[in-house]
Design brief:
single chain; 9 helices; 83% helix
Length: 228
């Protein structure tokens, strides 16, 4: 019954975190066990996985196979790494002067997961999508810092802002590298498709025509290798 109540209350939590995060963190229970926030994070992982699967079916996010795999992996990854992420945040907040427990840090971490499904959609916007999602998460962590952990706003913005800048630069670099790799693979596939088409045509030619065409094909193949 308790789990059912938690699940039925999740939409309201999501709405509060998105529309009134400052009020949500100010009123958030700081204790009460790890199960409620864990269930919430896993639920957000399921929603995220379904969204990625839909985007994959539409050809927008890694293809259909990757999308279907996300339905299984996203809840597991979010559930497991939530504890690790909370430990990192717990240390950061301790350095900033917080006197709250690890459980409280975990709860703050878990409920910020409310925005993850939306950030998955934002990621479809090249470069700006990832930055927008990172900025949104940073804002939530600053609010959690001030409303839950009693950290001064300036200190929270300096600390989490610096982390956001580093992560942002890393994310952009990885996205640029990833897009270049995808483009290179597409060009390679197109080049090889052209060569395969030429080989298929050889089968329909007489010996003289085939020999001449094969010589031209080998020349183009050697030239392509020299350019690489």
């Amino acid at each position: 019954m308790e789990i059912k109540q938690q699940i039925s209350g999740m939409p309201q939590i999501v709405i509060q975190v998105i529309t009134a995060p400052g009020k949500f963190f100010a009123e958030m229970a700081r204790t009460g066990g790890f199960l409620p926030p864990l269930v919430f994070m896993i639920a957000m992982g399921v929603v995220t996985g379904i969204l990625q699967a839909v985007l994959g079916l539409m050809g927008l996010s890694g293809g259909m196979a990757a999308g279907m795999m996300a339905v299984i992996l996203a809840p597991i990854v979010i559930g497991i790494f939530g504890f690790i992420g909370a430990a990192v945040l717990f240390i950061i907040w301790k350095i900033m002067g917080s006197g709250e427990s690890y459980e409280t840090a975990y709860r703050c971490m878990a409920y910020t997961a409310a925005i993850i499904p939306i950030t998955v959609l934002l990621q479809q916007i090249p470069y700006l999508g990832n930055i927008a999602g990172l900025a949104w998460m940073t804002w939530l962590l600053v609010l959690a810092s001030t409303r839950v952990h009693g950290v001064a706003a300036k200190k929270a913005w300096v600390g989490f802002g610096a982390i956001a800048v580093i992560l942002g630069l890393t994310t952009i670099s990885l996205e640029i590298a990833g897009r270049k790799m995808v483009k290179s693979m597409q060009n390679w596939e197109q080049e090889n498709q052209v060569k395969m088409d030429k080989l298929e045509k050889l089968e329909k030619m007489n010996p003289e025509e085939a020999g001449k065409a094969l010589g031209e094909f080998l020349k183009s193949f050697d030239k392509s290798n020299e350019e690489k």
